[in-house]
Amino acid sequence: MRIAFRGSPRPTVGVELELQLLDPETMNLVAGAPAILQRTADRAHVKAELIESTIELNTDVCEDIAEVRRDLAERIEQLLVVADELGYQVACVGTHPFSKWVEQRITDSERYRRLVEQCQWPARRLMIFGVHVHVGIESGEKAIAISNGLTTYLPHLLALSASSPFFNGADTGLASCRSKIFESLPTAGLPYRLLNWAEFQRLMITLVSAKAIESIREIWWDVRPHPHFGTIEVRICDGLPTLDEVIAVTALVQALVVWLGDQYDEGMYLPLHRHWIVRENKWRAARWSTEAEIIVDEDGNLERLDESLARLVESVTPVARRLGSDAELQRVGAMLGGDLSYRRQRSIYRETGDYTAVMKALVREFRENAPVQA
Prior knowledge:
It is a single chain. This protein has one domain: Creatine Kinase, Chain A, domain 2 (2-Layer Sandwich), CATH 3.30.590.20. It is 46% helix and 14% strand. Helix 2 packs antiparallel against helix 9, helix 5 crosses helix 9 and helix 14 packs across helix 15 (355-368). The relative contact order is 0.16. The longest helix has 23 residues, at 243-265. The protein has helices spanning 33-38, 65-86, 110-119, 121-124, 140-150, 154-161, 177-182, 197-209, 243-265, 275-288, 305-323, 326-329, 331-337, 341-352, 355-368; strands at 13-22, 46-48, 54-58, 89-91, 130-136, 166-167, 170-171, 188-189, 220-221, 223-226, 231-238, 293-295, 302-304.
């Protein structure tokens, strides 16, 4: 079985948002996706997900970050019109603080029924919501090299997007519990470190032949090559409550992929931490977000993650200027200087003692594209 990588000659960008559908009175999740899809002719950009309280919103293939912003803003506006007509609210955040996963209805799809039948409890518990970013890559070989290099920076992206401190009516103590819930699936979490495109094909052939998966679509790593789209897909990010935050993180992902690709093209070794360091750093990012101290070498030396992020933004800024996304990339600094979503949520809960107030603030953030403080 040969797996062709349909390469992209340019670093095009695409974004997928997994959005929560909410009852406007209780702020509980509501199984509204079927009703929204009935009113939506554009099935290429508005899609069902595993549970019926999720709607997925996808952009076109965009040439640059400015086009991503225009595309997403238009599609969000259209979705909110339909949601208002049906009496739903919408939020973009990694988890819901008090809805129960056991009460969620699974989407009527053979693919999702098979997933739940095969994985059982880990799949039923996937009441989680993320942001996925695709960046066009020329070849499968380059995609594997960049994917390996990206693992060093996955903790940075997770920390920046962390928005899931609450789950099932409790504070988990984590900045991103979504990332830990997702890891429970057998083909999710950190990717294997592969030598080349041939080894990726061999892995896929083995898993398909062993009936572990039916297709590459069932590989849900934190970063993966997407052969059909000709992209690298970064999947580690929690849902981000405002459009500005989504765009800032998307700009960082695109600039980071191109920065690593430039080094690859010049025959340089890409920055690559040992797998055990990446695993530990991902845990620290999930637990403490940008306040974590991450491991920077095999001697166990540490650096604050927010400081490492600031240096990373500085390193990729020349690339962002070339891509025309410098202004959007610099919003990452504003995010680091303010309260990230998980902190805003905890602050509102400390002030009110009410998870409903947390969700109302998140709904407002999504609609108004502005963080809400307690």
